[in-house]
Amino acid sequence: MSSSARKRTTDRKRDKAPASHALYENPRIYDLGFGFRDIPRECDGLLAIAARHGVKAPRRVVDIACGPAHHLREYSRRGLEALGVDVNAEMIAYARHLNRQAHLAVRLRKADMRRFRLPARVDIAQCLFDSFSHCMTDADAVATLRCAAAALRPGGIMILELTHPADYFERDEKRTVGRWIQRYDDVTVKTRFQTTAIDPVEETYVKSMVIDAAYRVGRETKRIVDRQLHRMWLRGGFRNVVALSGAFEIVGWYGDLTPRIPLSMRPASWRMVVALRRRNMRP
Ligand SMILES: C[S@@+](CC[C@H](N)C(=O)[O-])C[C@H]1O[C@@H](n2cnc3c(N)ncnc32)[C@H](O)[C@@H]1O
What we know:
Elements (H helix, E strand, L loop, with lengths): L2 H13 L6 H4 L1 H7 L5 H14 L7 E5 L5 H8 L3 E6 L2 H14 L4 E4 L11 E6 L10 H14 E12 L2 H4 L9 E5 L3 E13 L4 E12 L6 E10 L3 H11 L2 E7 L16 E8 L5
Parallel strand pairs: 1-2, 1-4, 2-3, 4-5
Antiparallel strand pairs: 5-11, 6-7, 7-8, 8-9, 10-11
Helix pairs in contact: 4-5, 7-9
S-adenosylmethionine (SAM) binds next to loops.
């Protein structure tokens, strides 16, 4: 087999990576397990990054692979128009349920990030919590970036939050913890999260997650086990797909969801956050 045929086979295999996951099909348990984030603070930081790169008074935001859409409800509370897309029907249904509970008009659409269109142009597009690493191939990434660019007004900002590169290579001093417990009134949720099967040749890894939800009364403990194959996005590969997309220029790298922490090997830099400006041209 020639090397290009082998590459096509690998790309096809990656394209067949399951779009559905036990984790996302149980969105409340996902949400409880990963419920440690300070959403208002993250939104402050995201808006500050956008402002630093020229988007100072945004009116409309899209969250790509929005999951439960907590950031979108926070934006909506602040008077922004908020839109979200996610490929998973259960996740969208759960996010809509949270919208109704909060009496907030967040517009959600079930769509693949590689193929979505929006009814109106946005000022900010965001893709958080490593959702972009579901883009397994360069073609997936370019398609996603082009959809985001088509959704953004010229000069609009896209912000992606990815795993810090050191977390793939440092065995003992990872920036993220592997086990934690979240306690709620009705349920205690224990999560075990591991980055496994790191393959620097294929640039892939597997997120292995086991979540146990133990309810106080009336329901049996629910266990979710999920193994997700992801693309390991490092700076060089990411720069390459941005260039291939023809739609963006990279304007900033940060180590957290705030413009105050640059991307570096310092411990405070624990994520890889990149800001892109949509070029003033058709993607
Ligand atoms: C780790 S969750 C993050 C959710 C959200 N961004 C957040 O910060 O909470 C990843 C999300 O990506 C969605 N997803 C995975 N592949 C997708 C695709 N091809 N298009 C759109 N959404 C996708 C999943 O359904 C899931 O809701």
